[in-house]
């Protein structure tokens, strides 16, 4: 990862912490929560290697995938921040002529679709973090039990926050097929992973 890439991700994270910034909100914060969850699951997996609870290969595989998800979700926080800017910029396009109005309308719709797809992808990553974390339950280093619980709390918060962002953007999408597909996938994720009974 280049320094420029990392700077962009950190900048998106810092915007979440800035109470005066109105351009970066819940979707970005939810992705950050998921990224932290993935990092914690990876940590718990590493701390469980050599404890004779499960084969070391089991923990190493969980560690590697969880680290990858954490990186993807941290990137996802930056992408979510950019998605909001894309919507805002589309609404600022000129609309003086019919051609400009048509182009603006298309840009707005493309931006709304993107703004729904980005948190949906992040929600799917959070769901996977929950799955990996659940595989560690009862098979991880007892000394890291609170870390695993924190990971599950953060992953679920990230998932639900991302889904809320999908659902608030879907009604703005005029393509009913795309809107229905996005809404259905969000519903499936909420039903499958949204309650604490999954832990």
Task: Characterise the protein shown here.
It is a single chain. The chain is an all-alpha fold and about 200 residues long. The chain has a single domain, classed as Four Helix Bundle (Hemerythrin (Met), subunit A). Helices cover about 80% and strands about 0% of the residues. Helix 1 crosses helix 3, helix 3 packs antiparallel against helix 4 and helix 4 runs parallel beside helix 6. The longest helix is centred in the middle third of the chain and has 39 residues. The radius of gyration is 19 Å and the shape is elongated. The two termini are about 35 Å apart.
Summarize the structure.
The protein has 199 residues and is mainly alpha-helical. 78% of the residues lie in helices and 0% in strands.
Keywords:
199 residues; mainly alpha; Four Helix Bundle (Hemerythrin (Met), subunit A); 6 helices
Low-confidence stretches: none
| Main beta sheet strand tally, sense and closure | none
Strand percentage lies at: under 5%
Number of strand elements: 0
The pLDDT mean sits at 90
Which structural class is indicated by helix and strand composition? mainly alpha
The ordered H/E elements are HHHHHH
Please give the structural blueprint.
Blueprint: H1 3-17, H2 26-48, H3 56-91, H4 98-136, H5 145-169, H6 176-193
